[in-house]
Amino acid sequence: MTRGPKAVTERAIGFGGLALALIAPLVFNAYWVDVILTQALIVGIAAASMIFLAAYGGMISLSQTMLMGAAGFMIGNMVTKGGAGGETKGLTLGWDPTLALVLALAGTTLLGVLLGAVAARSTGIYFLMITLTYSVVGFYFVGQVTVVSGFSGIANINSYTPPFVGDIVENRNRLYYIALGVAIAVYAFIRFVIRTPFGLSLQGLRDEPVRMSSLGYAVPLHRTLAFGLAAFMAALAGILLVWWQGQIAPGDIGLQATIDLLIVAVIGGLTRVEGAWVGALAFIVINNYIRDSWLTDLLDTVRIGGSFQTIIGLIFLVIVIVSPDGLMGAWDRLWGLRSGTDSGEGPSVTAIPAGEKLV
Amino acid sequence: MSDRIAQLDIRRLAPKLVVGLLVGFALLYIVVLANPTPDIGGNWRTTTFGSAIDDWQSFTRTLLNGLTFAGLLFIVASGFSLIFGLMRVVNMAHGSFYLLGGYIAYEVQQKMTGSGYSIAGVEVNTWEWVFPALIAAASIALVGLVVQQVFLRWNQGQELRQALITIAISVIIADQILAHFNEGIASSVTWPGWTNRLVELPLLGIQYSLARLIVLFLGLAVGLGLWIWLYRTRTGMVIRAGVDDRQMTSALGVNIQLTFAIAFVVGSSLAAFGGAVGASQGAVAAGQDGQWLLNSLVVVIIGGLGSLLGAAAGSLLYGLVFSFSAIYLPTIGGNCCTQYSIVFTFVLLALVLAFRPQGLFGRFS
Amino acid sequence: MRGISRHWKLVLPLGVLVVLATVVVSTSFAASKAKTVRVAIMTDCKGGFGFGYEPDIGGAQAAFANYANGKVKNKKKPSAGMTGIRVGNTDVQIVGYGCGDDTVPTAVKETRRLMEQLKADVMVGPLSGDEAVYVANYAKKHPNKTFIIGTAGSQDPTLQIAPKNMFRYHGDGAQWNAGIGEIAYKKLGWRKAAIIMDDYSFGWTSGAGIIADFCAIGGKITKRVFPPLNTTDYSSYVQQLPAPGTVDGTFWVVGGTGTSAALTAYEQANGALKPSQHIGNLFFAFLGADKVVAPKVAGSYLGGFGTAPGLKTGQAKIYEKVVARWYPGLNGGNYADGFVYNYYNAAWALIQGLTVSNGQTGAALHAKMPKTLRSGYEVSDKGSVKLDANRQAIQDQYPLQLVKNADGSVAPVVIGYVPNVNQSFGGLFTKNSPAPGRTQPKCVKKKLPWQGKIKVVKNGIIYPTVIK
Fold it and tell me: Which long-range contacts (CB under 8 A, 24 or more apart) does A76-80 make?
């Protein structure tokens, strides 16, 4: 298969970006590495799990933030220590961090499979609302059940990391590289999964659920498994998140946080996994820098009033109106304009290999 | 063959059996099993007031609290459901419309009574409550019309995109409310003076708030109005036809765009009217937009999207479970606490979703 | 024409990107070169406390304007900024305003933006308890930065976590309610009472102050009810409260947005509210509640916010004059609100610290931060707040009563003066005691340092007689 100029350009940009990411601590200042880029990588992983479900499973899940938080709350309860001078919130079990890491990942994946099994029977906007409901239940659960958290959340989780991770409070670049490594692994994993027979039939189910069902494919099972995989990716993001911010609180999985992740995925583009990190970076940079800009003063000048939140809302509105498939969509269209044809790889329907049947 | 049918039946019946048993147990617990809390200690049977037999009046109050709360839920959520049912738009700005409506009602009432603070009920007459509520509904109807015509009309069928557009609008409205309406932590509308009393309920033998009964009445009135509109007028007929089959209705020469606009306007103004009622029952405050979006979502998820009956059933179930779980979940010790009532409310959601993903009265389209 | 319509979908997003890039680049290169002390003011601009954004910034900047030469850019909008601040020979620059929303995750991002991106040396802030807990943990890991809490009611930042570079020149949520239990016991004759409190850390802490104070003098709390945060309909929670007559009264620790709704629910369940049967915390009168909540419960007593509205001391008048001079009409002209007052004091303490440290930041500044601070509403110790060993204020408190004015509005009036309230309530709250929660503190009779020493205040004048 020959690659078109678009694919070549994308590869070049991809590897260029990767190379830049690898030497980022040399190029950018500490704040950019530690806050902007690390955060973008982590949020990007969570967004990638959402895009994975949306692009290849046709499911828009608003549970990814909650699953991310679930992993965070699990590890937070398991690793922190109580007693004099210790933490006052959560179960403060004080378990071994490596064990806690494994249990949190496994527990969240299991939770994802269970929730996915219930949600898998719905589609479209119903699926979206059911997964939103999961998020809300999760938010109230950790807020109300003070034994495991309460509204203040659990602090100082990043003081207890497995030995192979080491001290990430002092060595912030280490956390950056861990996040980068996990992000690359997640990206590669998604690329791998969508080419496996499972991934191919998942995409088939996305486009032709009825036909696939009548061909004997177990539709709910495929969707449940995909949801479980996405939960695992979200869990990875959740662990990184608590290591990065040191703590976790119900606000991390509230409605606002859930919508923020959706915005990230949409800005990036719900059709391509790469969009997750593009969207995360764009979102974080906009949130971080727009408020000190002249755009906010402009609101007062034109006598509308309000703060930079209005600007962020407007930017988001413009993006959704102009390019519903986000920045990646705009990129694809750029090539479409130039060559007159769309040469994007995209998650178009891939033929299902004959006789191939999973499960 | 017959074995397989029997098996299928069991698989189909099992969920119903489980739900039936759970509901039955809950009812049994509330009516008979629960015990009043002792001063010290407690077990799974101890609740705030004991069972309905132990304390009939508290049971009735809890029931009425649930019903009246459901009235408010229905006013707000029926608008949300109407918009979704016809246009497949999940209006994520519905909570913002509620909040904006509440603030507008507050501002108008302040202008009319001219005090600059919430005044006692005796000083407010009926008109000074009705007019602000109507102005709020009318203003948000206009906002809704603009949103629908400018932002949603040209991208019909793109459900996610429309939901995202309304999210962006809700972000902007939230910030603008903060900039223009929010002078303190909360603002509240005052009920007219004559509602501010307890009335004797003849058969039940308790006194109950007239204002709360009025909320229930308003909920019923909105329900009845919507029913007459949807089932007894031509516009309503067109809307119902549109809910069932949009293309077909359109093909029959009906101006579906006009119908859409009307539905969106009505749905939005219901949110604002609910905001005025909610602001009178408590207060409106920044951050409640998300709260009411959730309330609306919960109601329509339970009841089924786009169904008037579903919105009513969802409001009732949500309202009742909310009030009963606060009172009838087990408590421990004389001075502490029913704790997990909100979580319990959402267990209801999980149950509904697990066994009827489309909601109690919803249909898959 | 057709070309444009075909290309606009591409041109617009690219245009947006270009604008954004310009904005990012221009702001990231705007950092100053001269060696100045960089100060960030952290507050909320969204959510329940979002309305506090301008009052908080205004309070802090009024101090900078008055004592450090700061130039006000816009008298109506403090967040428009301030230039020209000089303390001694040192330039002070306000590098940014934090925009929290009363949740921890936003506080995380905003704190890091201010301290790391904008490279602030000092934070004046944050607002609200949970945010302060996070900032305290952050402070521990950034010992060279200085944190002066803006307004926060949680105990942990200065009791459990207590980083050496964090200072709080005002009381916590429990301290703000000191004396109100004794007032209930003595002036209203309460012996048995119920309490309804928000089910999160500020509710628990604020309630803890009331429970500790009321039980210390011999009162009994017979029922605790915990409505969840963001409750829409309080009727089911209010129903759990003992009916009027079965207890002497009810303490209300339902915060902010819910206060009015909770009281309405009580009124709808039990008939008109009798002022002698209800006592509230600061949410009966402050943060705009004077307009919403106070008219419902005119005549009731309430705990305070560490401030004394209408106190007629020279110091109090000076404070109010200073704020009015630089930001007239700030917070609706209500300068005796904790938000304005506490941010003002935090900034003023910083100015004094920087003066003594000669503009040095870090450990040098921490050592020189004032141990006592002359604050507007302080009376004891020659009008100064004292810091304890954990750098937490020992402060005078003023229980209040809601009084109806001639025009029908209702305002809080100081009725008592509680001298030198410390954070530990006579040893009840310590580093190792269980944090306030649903069952903590227990109701115990004990001796509090201020017990029996609450002085009568009438018309803003403190009398030598104690409240009996």
Answer: A76/A149, A76/A153, A76/A154, A76/A157, A76/A242, A76/A247, A76/A248, A77/A148, A77/A149, A77/A154, A78/A103, A78/A104, A79/A157, A79/A160, A80/A154, A80/A155, A80/A156, A80/A157, A80/A160
Would residue A124 count as lying in a domain? yes
CA C240 to chain A, closest CA, distance in angstroms equals 18
User: What is the Cα–Cα distance from B240 to B225, expressed in whole angstroms?
Assistant: 15
C378: phi then psi, degrees, rounded to nearest 5: -85, 145
CA-based diameter of chain A, in Å?
Answer: 69
Q: What secondary structure letter does DSSP report for C144?
A: T
Dihedral of alpha carbons C75, C78, C80, C85, sign: positive
Q: How far is CA C256 from CA B187, C92, C153, C261, C415, in A?
A: 10, 35, 13, 10, 23
Q: Is residue A286 part of a domain?
A: no
Enumerate the β-bridge partners of residue C148.
C124, C167
Q: Is B37 on the interface with C (CB under 8 A)?
A: no
State CA C13 to chain mean position distance. 43
Question: Considering only alpha carbons, which residue of chain B is nearest residue A137?
Answer: B346
Q: How large is the ipTM?
A: 0.89
Residue C234 and residue B212 in contact, taking contact as beta carbons nearer than 8 Å: no
Query: Is C221 in a helix, a strand, or coil?
Result: strand
Establish if B179 touches chain A: CB-CB under 8 angstroms: yes
State the Cα–Cα distance between residues B296 and B302, nearest whole angstrom.
10
| Mutation choice for C interface testing from B122, B177, B185 by most C CBs within 10 A | B185
What is the pLDDT tens value at each position of chain A, 359 positions in all? 556 888 888 889 999 999 999 999 999 988 899 889 999 999 999 999 999 999 999 999 999 999 999 999 999 999 998 776 667 778 889 999 999 999 999 999 999 999 999 888 888 777 888 898 889 889 988 988 888 888 888 988 988 999 999 888 888 899 999 999 999 999 999 999 999 999 999 999 888 888 888 888 888 899 999 999 999 999 999 999 999 988 899 999 988 899 899 989 988 988 899 999 999 999 999 888 887 677 777 777 777 777 788 888 898 899 888 887 888 888 888 887 665 444 333 333 322 233 222 22
Which of A122, A255, A256 faces B357 most closely, judged by CB atoms?
Answer: A122
* CA dist list (Å): C180 to A128, A273, C176: 50, 59, 9
* In-domain check, residue A272: no
How far away is chain C from the Cα of A285, in angstroms, using its nearest Cα? 8
Q: Which residues from chain B sit within 8 angstroms of residue A254, using beta carbons?
A: 290
Two tokens, residue C31: 């950092």
Contact C215, C171 (CB under 8 A): no
Nearest to C105 among A143, A257, A288 (CB): A257
- For the packed helices B126-146 and B256-281, what is the interaxial angle rounded to 10 degrees? 140
B140: Cα separation from own chain's centroid: 18
Q: Is B183 on the interface with C (CB under 8 A)?
A: yes
Q: Which residue has the tokens 């602090």?
A: A155
Rounded CA gap, C413 and B365, in Å? 62
3-state helix, strand, coil in chain C (%, to 5): 40, 20, 40
Residue A204 belongs to some domain of the structure: yes
How far apart (Å, rounded) are the C-alpha atoms in residues B48 and B55? 10
Q: Count the domains in chain A.
A: 1
Domain that residue A205 falls in? 5-251
Backbone angles phi, psi at B239, to 5 degrees: -65, -45
pTM for the full predicted model:
0.89
Q: ω before A209 within 30° of 0 (cis)?
A: no
With beta carbons under 8 A apart, name residues in chain C contacting A39. Answer: 109
Pair type for strands C393-397 and C384-387: antiparallel
Amino acid at A214: S
Contact C436, C155 (CB under 8 A): yes
